[in-house]
Design a protein that fits this description.
The chain is α+β, with helices and mostly antiparallel strands and 733 residues long. The chain contains 32 helices and 21 strands. The strands form 6 sheets. Strands 1, 2, 3, 4, 5 and 6 form a 6-stranded mixed beta sheet that branches. The chain has a 4-stranded mixed beta sheet with strand order 13-15-14-16, with no helix packed on it. Strands 19-20-18-21 form a 4-stranded antiparallel beta sheet, covered by helices on one side. A hairpin with a 5-residue loop joins strand 5 (306-311) and strand 6.
């Protein structure tokens, strides 16, 4: 382990301007607090913050960031508090450390929630100070360098998380040195055999590639010397993960990867970049479609460079990258290369940083709009992994979108109002649908309509950008709010009754308000809208209501007969209403009252089905589905007994028997899975008839209590998702 003197000497070699007094103070405090703590390797834990601080210095970060790196674990892993940190090192350092600190005190329902909340907090801190993320990346990099001491399951988990979140984040910030190392380490442990094979393949032709590179460099030097240009030139080794991705996802052999051999040329000005490009293209023949101008069209992380692939004298392709010194700094260290002390930023500098971090600012919107942890993580991953496509407005403005984007993404990028009224688009003067895939260089004009009904749930499948998807979700949430509020009230009422309680007693305004506050809903309407989705949220809410109700009943006099009478009266009223609902078939005959009506057992119609009445002999009106085989097969003379009927406005809680046929494999537990689907949807399963075949097949008919055709369709979808089920359909008769 490095001593304080060795550590300070090392960072001063990187930057002699560092204030070693402040950094030394942080070193002493961190060493004191971590004393006695060990890493998985058995080494003193303090080795970790030392190395994090050195990585930050190598990235060119300021003293505050290096101090944050030294202290980043003290609040989480020691008795040292945030207040003490503020007192000793100030609010700025405390903000950096707090942003990196994990959430250790809050209990979550799932691993996804823990991960999502950690990232939410990190992103929120990032929005205040980007140095939080840079510390986090340095922290992750050193942990990955020493990951071999973890358990195999933990290694796999951390490597996947690194590839899914941290490496892309480093890429979006343009810190390629960190990104490439993270990716290569993760590949080494996730796919050790492929990594070893790749190492061997790359090594086999190493000497040949070095010879080729040296020859190319020599020829370029000779040409550039004649132009009297200042330049640096060297060969570039392609990192393993990049080669692995191309071989795996593009089905390429290692000999087919053009940029395995690469030369990088660094010059003083943009003008010199294009001049060198012209020389290169006169010396070797460029491969069509392999030229990329990232100077005119920078990547989202502000990466700039000219890339061209040419055919060498020996017929082997190789890549040449051309950039300025400033571009090279940005390419290697990203946002860290631009770091300036906040108090020293000019408005122009601040504006430049805002542009570079526009995607990061948008991430805060995710926290407001996405309540589901899985949605949050998925949206974040989608944004991080997105490659870009550049399209143009009719006025010639460049719009950057994720690859695969549609006119919908373009419309919402321009303005939310345009996106919501979008009905189509003109691409290069030709009308296209909203799901058309945009290509680089397309000129896009959005077609809107004032009569448009606005976004639908299907638009979420069409939109490819997180920006568009979030705006669509917000619109749908707002439009459906009133419906969801009423639905939420119904769901809550039903859940309370199911548990044997009376909603009039348990869902008093005072109880509801208290429960809404306890579950952090903004207001009652917001709470009911959330409850409309059902699931565990409703169960938690009911539990709170029941606890408040039971607590009040403990404190009130148990002998209060009036209270007991009220409870009994409410229960009797509920039972009478329930009986009326059961007795009524929910169907009326147009133009007639007080007729005996029953639902036919042969087809079991439910609300939403097209129905017809049949006048029986002495048994009133029998109501059938119009597609019932007993109806369609009647002789013509019998059809005169048909009578027009319709569904009445149904009260909550009315249900109807419906038969559903299930075909699949006879596996252990399939009936349990079917029962679980019904239980999760709060649907009563009243009958099962099953038979198995010699070939292991299963044919089953189940009878369910269904309230509508909409509920029927949802049941069918959920049953089809059960493992082993091949066909699900409603029995016709």
């Amino acid at each position: 382990m490095k001593t304080k003197a060795q550590f300070l000497d090392e960072i001063l070699k990187i930057n002699p301007k560092y204030n070693t007094e402040l950094i030394g103070k942080a070193f002493d405090k961190a060493q004191e607090l971590h004393d006695g703590q060990l890493r998985k390797s058995g080494e003193p834990y303090f080795i970790h913050p030392i190395n994090v601080a050195i990585i930050l210095a190598q990235l060119g970060m300021d003293e505050a960031t290096i101090i944050g790196g030294l202290l980043h674990d003290v609040v989480e892993d020691t008795e040292y508090t945030r207040d003490q940190l503020v007192k000793d090192f100030g609010e700025e350092i405390a903000l950096l450390v707090d942003g990196v600190t994990k959430l250790g005190t809050i209990k979550f329902e799932s691993k996804e929630e823990i991960q999502a909340e950690n990232f939410r907090k990190m992103f929120l801190a990032m929005s205040k100070d980007i140095r939080v993320l840079i510390i986090k990346l340095a922290d992750r990099l050193h942990n990955m360098r020493t990951i071999e001491y973890m358990k195999p399951a933990k290694i796999e988990e951390k490597c996947k998380e690194t590839l899914e979140i941290y490496a892309p984040l480093a890429g979006r910030l343009g810190i390629s040195t960190v990104r490439f190392e993270l990716e290569d380490i993760a590949l080494k442990y996730l796919h050790p055999e492929e990594f070893k094979d790749l190492q061997e393949k790359v090594s086999l032709r190493k000497s040949q590639r070095e010879e080729t590179i040296n020859t190319v460099i020599g020829e370029i030097k000779e040409a550039l010397d004649d132009m009297d240009l200042e330049y640096d030139i060297y060969g570039r080794a392609k990192h393993f993960y990049s080669i692995y991705k191309k071989m795996k996802f593009q089905n390429k052999q290692i000999d087919e990867i053009f940029d395995l051999i690469a030369v990088r040329i660094i010059v003083d000005t943009v003008k010199d970049c294009y001049a060198v490009l012209g020389i290169v293209h006169t010396m070797w023949k460029p491969i069509p479609g392999r030229f990329k101008d990232y100077i005119a069209m920078p990547k989202p992380n502000m990466y700039q460079s000219l890339h061209t692939t040419v055919i060498g004298d020996n017929g082997e392709p190789f890549e040449i990258q051309i950039r300025t010194h400033e571009m090279h700094e940005v390419a290697e260290y990203g946002i860290a290369a631009h770091w300036k002390y906040k108090e020293g930023n000019t408005s122009a500098e601040a504006s430049s940083d805002d542009i570079k971090l526009a995607w990061l600012r948008q991430s805060i919107e995710w926290q407001q709009d996405l309540n589901d942890p899985k949605d949050f993580l998925e949206t974040m991953k989608m944004d991080l992994f997105a490659t870009q496509v550049f399209v143009f407005t009719p006025r010639g403005d460049v719009i950057e979108l994720p690859a695969g984007s549609t006119p919908l993404d373009f419309a919402f990028k321009i303005h939310s109002a345009i996106g919501c009224k979008c009905v189509g688009a003109k691409v290069n003067g030709k009308m296209v649908t909203i799901d058309h895939t945009l290509q680089n260089g397309d000129i896009v004009e959005i077609v809107t309509s004032a009569n448009s009904s606005g976004p639908s749930a299907d638009w979420l499948k069409i939109a490819k950008s997180s920006n568009a998807r979030n705006k669509i979700r917000s619109w749908l949430k707002k439009e459906n709010k009133s419906d969801n509020i009423e639905k939420g009230k119904e769901v809550l009422d039903k859940a309370i009754r199911k548990k044997g309680y009376d909603p009039a007693l348990c869902a008093k305004s005072a109880y509801v308000t208290k429960a809404m506050k306890a579950m952090n809903f903004a207001n009652a309407d917001e709470g009911y809208a959330q409850l409309s989705n059902g699931g565990s949220l409703v169960s938690k809410f009911c539990s709170l209501l029941f606890s408040y109700y039971n607590e009040d009943n403990k404190t009130e006099a148990k002998s209060d007969e009036s209270v007991l009478d009220d409870i009994k009266a409410a229960e009797a009223k509920r039972q009478r209403a329930e009986q009326r609902r059961k007795d009524s078939p929910g169907v009326i005959v147009k133009g007639a009252d007080n007729l005996m009506i029953k639902l036919a057992r042969c087809c079991n119609p439910v609300p939403g089905d097209e129905i017809v009445g049949f006048i029986t002999k002495g048994r009133g009106i029998s109501v059938h589905r119009k597609d019932c085989s007993n109806v369609t097969s009647l002789p013509e003379k019998e059809k005169a007994r048909f009578i027009e009927v319709e569904w009445e406005d149904l009260k909550m809680g009315k249900s109807y028997d419906a038969d559903i046929c299930i075909v699949g494999s006879d596996r252990k537990g399939i009936l349990s899975d079917i029962s679980r689907v019904c239980e999760d949807m709060d649907i009563h399963l009243s009958g099962v008839n099953a038979k198995t075949g010699r070939d292991g097949s299963l044919t089953m008919t189940i009878t369910l209590s269904i309230s509508s055709t909409q509920e029927m369709q949802k049941v069918l979808r959920n049953l089809r998702n059960i493992n082993g089920v091949t066909h699900v359909y409603r029995a016709k008769s």
